[in-house]
Amino acid sequence: MTRPTAIPEPIAIVVVVGGPNALVAAVRQAAGIAAGARVETAELNTAATVVATHRPFAIVMSEDMYAFDSAEFDALARDVSAALLKIDTQDASQTKLERTLMPKLGRAHRQRGG
User: Fold this and answer.
1) Mean pLDDT score of the chain, rounded to an integer?
2) Coil, strand or helix: which one is 73?
3) Which of 24, 51, 61, 108 could form an SS bridge with 17, CB 3.0 to 4.6 Å?
4) Helix 47-54 / helix 70-79 crossing angle, nearest 10 deg
């Protein structure tokens, strides 16, 4: 008797656009705890491709990055049904960023059906 083919569970993914490094590190920590998620990074010029490829449940960026082209980022998040999390990174420690991100990522993951 053969066993049915195992269908892998979808992997939860978060994409961080831009930086800074403290934000990327905080997202890695918070996403792992809040959603068991893998984190991918993208620069401004590769954001659309990375997001379309990975279809994350959340896109995270600094408020400064968002201000660069807010309408385009809103549309990108809407296209892949991702939560768009804009984070104030000004003078924020990695610990503060993690504490800010954890509940937001957890909520976004649950809303996406995670």
Assistant:
1) 92
2) helix
3) 61
4) 20
pLDDT band (50, 70, 90) for residue 43: very high
**Is the predicted pLDDT of residue 112 greater than 70, yes or no?**
yes
What mean pLDDT comes out for the span 51-55? Answer: 96
Specify the pTM.
0.90
All domains in the chain, ordered by first residue: 13-111 (3.40.50.11900)
Contact (CB, 8 A) for 50 and 14: no
Structure tokens at 74: 């809103």
Contacts of 85 (CB under 8 A, 6+ apart): 58, 59, 60, 61, 101, 104, 105, 108
Q: Can you tell me the mean pLDDT for 96-112?
A: 95
Residue 91 region by backbone torsions, left for phi larger than 0, else alpha for psi between -120 and 50, else beta: left
Distance CA(82)–CA(92), nearest Å, equals 24
Closest CA to 39 of 59, 60, 13: 13
